[in-house]
Prior knowledge:
The complex is a heterodimer. By secondary structure, chain A is mainly beta. Helix content of chain A is 0%, strand content 51%. Chain A is built from no helices and 11 strands. Chain A has strands at 5-7, 10-13, 19-24, 31-38, 42-50, 53-56, 65-69, 75-79, 88-95, 105-106, 110-114. In chain A, strands 2, 4, 5, 6, 9, 10 and 11 form a 7-stranded mixed beta sheet that branches. Chain A has a 4-stranded antiparallel beta sheet with strand order 1-3-8-7, with no helix packed on it. Chain A is globular and about 40 Å long. The model of chain A has no long low-confidence stretch (mean pLDDT 93). Chain B has no helices and 11 strands. Chain B has strands spanning 4-7, 10-14, 19-25, 32-38, 44-51, 56-59, 62-67, 72-77, 86-94, 98-101, 105-110. In chain B, a hairpin with a 4-residue loop joins β7 (62-67) and β8 (72-77). Chain B is globular. At the A-B interface, β4, β5, β9 and β10 of A face β5, β9 and β10 of B.
Amino acid sequence: GAGVSQSPSxxxxxxxxxxxLRCDPISGHTALYWYRQSLGQGLEFLIYFQGNSAxxxxxxxxxxxxxxxxxxxxxxxxxxxxxxxxxxxYLCASSLDGAGGREQYFGPGTRxxxx
Amino acid sequence: xQEVTQIPAALSVPEGENLVLNCSFTDSAIYNLQWFRQxxxxxxxxxxxxxxxxxxxxxxxxxxxxxxxxxxxTLYIAASQPGDSATYLCAVMSGYNKLIFxxxxxxxxxx
Lengths: 115, 111
């Protein structure tokens, strides 16, 4: 595809519900990253995928957060039992591969609001 | 632990002024440093990427410098315009290509 796409663009959910956020990386990019931008914390790293494996998941804030990537392409970030503090913009980025210093290309983000 | 600081947090200037935005980082073991622009409610637009072996990059009215040993970068905007109003984010890339972001500088350029 032309760029990184994310869906949905906006999601409003009730506290306690589970949500799934989707990221489609640029075609051929093997590395994929999730970040979160919230009012109180700024923009922070969540998880990194190289192919289907996640060598670095150090940024996931709790065990309610999980992510998977299948077929080395699409990734899904799942938040279980959402809390109000999960409200944020979730950004996905991809890069050609995991070689050091590869530029990351960002998607438009999913704005999650937990009521 | 890598920390990125941006100064000032906010800046308001009249159109036409030349600007300097500052970014500092605590660990010099970085792959590169990148400047982004973010408009309200929008995603990130990459402005300039400086590899660790480089000293500066230029694009149009923008110039970014990198002094890795001192942990500093500056973004210079020449002849500012109202359309430059946005939040400017600095990010350094280290270990597993993780980007660590600063809190940003909110710029307002008024006519």
